[in-house]
């Protein structure tokens, strides 16, 4: 009978076996004792605490975003191949530190749910011996109004897998890491797909291109081509009118105005209008408020609850992983209070649709008909050679930029993609991985056989494996006569390598206490004119403006480390 590997770490931390005889997860409390066990047992160990880093707005500390989670899963799969080649046991470890442990638990849970095809309940059951986990919180300055747990995050990811939003478990998975990390940056558009083919969340465009160094704000025209390529049919604005909405209308998009105050919850009228717009629009919606986080997030989550069967907690957990900082303050409790009503409305909606047009698919099957051209979360994949036993594996290995830099790229072929779940469901019972039947081991073996060339990878690597920043892509984006063209003239077209997805971005709180993502150069330059420009766009009272911008100690430390790294 196999002895669980976790028992070997009793004196140096909390440990759980994730894959029987192959992978153990340890929350370290005594580093020296842990190192001694690793050396004596000739195990392979790895840690990503300093590799995969969450950039906070203020007091928030996780969970890590979808791109970083993907990097973790890719690295773990590669390390497992290496360990198997050498006939050695693999140990993933984190800590010491409660924040590290909570983020690591979500990563390990996502690996189980998205790659090993385990039910969220089973994945969390294996992690329970490591409790307690520090709950995640929203990015606001005040007291946390809602505790987002590790379990909530795993259930949200599990639901996203079941409805077809995330398909990493499929051998034909099309996740494009470079595209996700490119477009989520402020300088490249600050956008994320939450529901592939239906909802894109982005920060509000500027009325005029404002240039500071190599950074230029985006105007409505900058998004036109990307939106057309991705099937966006309408734009929903939730904040005050900082630009003329006709600039999207002239580009062929419907424009909807649903203003409600920054950081607040939507009225019933706003909520129902948003849902009706989403239900009646044939194609995708691009939704924004000021930062594309709070107001944008709460309404998209309401749609997830009504039409895709998410609970409020699952919706918040999922959207925070897709777009960190989403759903803020009272908006969290609002979703919880509205969840039963929204779920009931969803059932009524489907019953009415069925009565009118005959049997329809279940809500979790609706995304199976999404066109490949609509995807940003999912795009092209790459086969790679197996990892050599001695090859170093870095989670932060750079990936290529999208095929066309800027807010648009070459469209995929547009053929339909079936998003069905591959493989059977987990059994209802949950057992210790070290004493369970061989079913889990066989499932993992099948997965590794499908991925012997490591299909959990990203876009095709070119001669330069870099993610390009806004400063390199303006020329490709700007067309003669566009408002961004004048601001971009004369700037360098050379590619600038980037090692981390968050390079160049500072997360902070605006004068009214709401989270914002700003170019780090804005802080580093101390440009008072630039700060005043951005303040003028805020929905803040004169009294709030006196407070100025707030950047947390953790963000300051990360920016300082980044500057030191760039100088060296």
From TrEMBL:
Biased composition range(s): Polar residues: 462-476
Entry-linked SMART domains: PTPc_motif
Low complexity bias (residue ranges): 481-496
GO molecular function: protein tyrosine phosphatase activity
Stretches assigned to the Tyrosine specific protein phosphatases domain: 272-334
The keyword Hydrolase is assigned to this record: yes
Residue ranges, annotated region (Disordered): 413-441, 462-501
Documented EC number(s): 3.1.3.48
SUPFAM superfamilies named in the record: (Phosphotyrosine protein) phosphatases II
Pfam families: DSPn (PF14671), Tc-R-P (PF22785)
Record key words, sorted: Hydrolase, Protein phosphatase
InterPro entries to which the protein is assigned, alphabetical: CDC14_C, DSPn, Prot-tyrosine_phosphatase-like, PTP, Tyr_Pase_AS, Tyr_Pase_cat, Tyr_Pase_dom, TYR_PHOSPHATASE_DUAL_dom
Domain Tyrosine-protein phosphatase: 189-348
PROSITE patterns found in the cross-reference section: TYR_PHOSPHATASE_1 (PS00383), TYR_PHOSPHATASE_2 (PS50056), TYR_PHOSPHATASE_DUAL (PS50054)
Enzyme class at the top of the EC tree: hydrolase
Family per record: Belongs to the protein-tyrosine phosphatase family. Non-receptor class CDC14 subfamily.
Protein's recorded name: protein-tyrosine-phosphatase
């Amino acid at each position: 009978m196999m002895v669980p590997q976790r028992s070997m770490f009793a004196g140096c931390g909390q440990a759980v076996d994730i894959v029987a005889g192959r992978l153990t997860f340890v929350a370290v409390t005594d580093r020296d004792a842990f190192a001694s066990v690793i050396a004596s047992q000739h195990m392979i160990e790895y840690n990503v605490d300093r590799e995969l880093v969450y950039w906070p707005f203020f007091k928030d500390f996780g969970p890590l975003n979808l791109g970083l989670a993907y990097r973790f899963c890719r690295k773990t799969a590669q390390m497992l191949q290496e360990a198997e080649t050498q006939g050695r046991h693999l140990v993933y470890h984190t800590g010491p530190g409660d924040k590290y442990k909570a983020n690591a638990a979500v990563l390990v849970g996502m690996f189980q749910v998205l790659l090993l095809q385990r039910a969220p309940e089973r994945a969390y059951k294996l992690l329970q011996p490591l409790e307690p986990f520090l709950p995640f919180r929203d990015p606001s300055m005040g007291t946390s109004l809602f505790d987002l747990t590790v379990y909530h995050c795993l259930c949200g990811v599990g639901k996203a897998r079941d409805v077809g939003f995330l398909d990493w478990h499929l051998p034909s998975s099309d996740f494009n890491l470079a595209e996700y990390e490119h477009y989520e940056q402020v300088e490249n558009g600050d956008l994320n797909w939450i529901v592939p083919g239906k909802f894109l969340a982005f920060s509000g465009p500027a009325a005029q291109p404002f240039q500071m160094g190599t950074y230029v704000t985006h105007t409505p025209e900058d998004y036109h081509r990307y939106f057309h390529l991705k099937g966006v049919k309408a734009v929903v604005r939730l904040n005050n009118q900082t630009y003329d909405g006709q600039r999207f209308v002239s580009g062929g998009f419907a424009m909807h105005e649903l203003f409600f105050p920054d950081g607040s919850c939507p009225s019933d009228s706003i909520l129902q209008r948003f849902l009706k717009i989403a239900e009646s629009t044939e194609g995708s919606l691009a939704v924004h408020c000021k930062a594309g986080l709070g107001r944008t997030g709460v309404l998209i989550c309401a749609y997830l609850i009504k039409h895709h069967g998410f609970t409020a907690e699952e919706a918040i957990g999922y959207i925070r992983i897709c777009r960190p900082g989403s759903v803020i303050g009272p908006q969290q409790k609002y979703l919880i209070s509205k969840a039963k009503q929204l779920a009931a409305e969803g059932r009524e909606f489907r019953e009415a649709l069925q009565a009118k047009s005959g049997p329809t698919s279940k809500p979790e099957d609706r995304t199976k008909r999404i066109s490949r051209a609509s995807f940003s979360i999912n795009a092209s994949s790459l086969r790679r050679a197996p990892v050599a036993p001695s090859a170093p594996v870095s989670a932060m290995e750079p990936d290529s930029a999208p095929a066309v830099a800027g807010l648009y790229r070459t469209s995929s072929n547009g053929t339909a993609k079936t998003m069905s779940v591959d493989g059977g469901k987990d059994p209802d019972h949950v057992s210790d991985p070290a004493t369970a039947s061989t079913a889990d081991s066989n499932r993992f073996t099948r997965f590794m056989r499908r991925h012997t060339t490591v299909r959990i990878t990203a876009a095709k690597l070119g001669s330069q494996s870099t993610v390009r920043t806004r400063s390199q892509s303006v020329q490709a984006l700007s067309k003669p006569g566009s408002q961004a063209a004048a601001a971009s003239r004369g700037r360098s077209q050379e590619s600038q390598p980037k090692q981390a997805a968050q390079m160049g971005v500072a997360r902070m709180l605006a004068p009214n206490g709401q989270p914002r993502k700003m170019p780090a150069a804005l802080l580093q330059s101390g440009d008072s004119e630039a700060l005043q420009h951005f303040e003028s766009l805020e929905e803040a009272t004169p009294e709030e403006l006196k407070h100025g911008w707030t950047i947390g100690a953790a963000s300051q430390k990360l920016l300082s480390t980044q500057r030191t790294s760039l100088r060296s």
